[in-house]
Model the fold of this input.
Amino acid sequence: MITKKYEGAKKAAIEEFKIAEKQELVEKPPPPLCCIFGDKNSEFKIRDMMENARKSVYCRTSERYMGYVKKFVKKGITLRLIIMSDGDGPQKQMETLFKTGDVCIRTVSIDQIMDMAGPAEKEAQRKMSSIVDMPDMENMFLLVVDDTEALMVIPIKSNSLNAITSTNGTVVYMMKRWIELNDTANKPPDNH
Done:
């Protein structure tokens, strides 16, 4: 009786495999290049990314979004934080919160960020300023978590929080490099 039961299960399994062989394999489509979030969803997404960070957080932020970063106090996470500010108050606040660990916090003035543009970019900005609003660096927020996901609040004048996120490896790498390059480009010369 047991043998008969197993023989029946074997025949049923063979039939399922024959059906499966005839079906086309459908590969899982890649994730979308990016997703756009509106006001509340952007806040939830930023909080979710920071709360679920396991290895590293790279962030460049204006003072406007410091509240999101202040809530993120974890031990054992690499933190690279660039604060766009004309004073060192926000940096001192963050250094007090993040006293230990692999933490690097720097302040860069918005003028320094804007001065990084080359002559051609500056000329284009001058011409375009009469047509469109220029970037609003007070509305800038870049976040890369665990080298797997990136988020950007676009630096356009707005009263709402709109963000673009991506898990695409190339986009994540480019955003992280953008944060790192802005950091190294504005470092004072080493006196050693």
About this structure: DSSP finds seven helices and seven strands in the chain. The chain has a mean pLDDT of 80. The chain has one domain: 33-185. The first strand starts at residue 35 and ends at 37.
